[in-house]
Amino acid sequence: MEVAAEASGAAGTDILLSLLPEILDDILTRLPLKEVVRTCCLSRGWARRWESASGLDVRFRGFYSAGAVAGVLARCAAPVASFDIEVRPRLRPRAAYWLRALAEKRVRSLQLAFGSSRADEHGVFPGVGRAIYACAELSNLYLRYCEVPRPPPPQPGQGSLFAGFPRLTRLALNSVKLPFAGAGALLERVIAGAPDLADLLLVDVTTGVVAGGEKKVVEEEPEAWAIRAPKLHSLTLWTPAVDNGGRVAGELPLLNAANMSVDAFLGTEDFLDTLWLVSRVKVLKFSVRDREMMRRIFVALCWKTTGSENYKL
């Protein structure tokens, strides 16, 4: 009886492993990461099977160690479909190493959400690392509470400076700083250089030279940069307390929903131009602290649209 049971178990395992590698990969990519790794305990044939499955979704939530993340990244095959992690404060220094590994694994979707700490100096965010610019296959990029450094200079024989992420369909930056000269132009180039970008979220994004944790805006004008994305379907634009130079430029014919708070340049022609460009969406959420200013803006918009000052607020 024991021999028969062992033979039956072996046959069952052999039958499963006899499936085409593409089918096995598809099975593994549908499982949570923890369950994928546990398949190594099924049998000797499954011991390292998950390591060759391409297109895995790597997600870390709750408690995890830096070694666990590094171990998974070292063993999983390229390309990595997605990497989603909440970076706890004590593990921030490891993020640069993870990014280098992900760039080599040709990661497609990247979500790095840094956690804040009471020990953080005001206005100083944790750094991401330059390896972010080597993740050229990205179609989805989400960054939260971090500082993005200047791109590395081109190496001999590599041509021009960093051009962008041409495969992007979603870009989300929440509480992100790009504290260097030319950062606005870089962000503009990234947005315009992704022809299929459909979802854009920019919340409290600051660009330009930073001194002492705060952007210098008293002595100099902010660097001007523009949002040009003709295939955009969804736009969230919340400017920080100071003008960061970002403006919506060009028509957005496919835009369906917009969520905006741009108090930093209220009452200017730039504000009216931006409102005009997004005013035809199906869903428009506008948050303004100054209600009287909002009333004047709607009067101006109604007049520009219909030639009448009749409106409902």
From TrEMBL:
Domain (F-box/LRR-repeat protein 15/At3g58940/PEG3-like LRR) ranges: 96-208
Domain (F-box) ranges: 17-52
Alphabetized InterPro entries for the sequence: F-box-like_dom_sf, F-box_dom, LRR_FXL15/At3g58940/PEG3-like
Pfam families per the UniProt record, alphabetical: F-box (PF00646), LRR_At5g56370 (PF24758)
Source organism superkingdom: Eukaryota
Name this polypeptide is given: Uncharacterized protein
Source organism: Oryza meridionalis
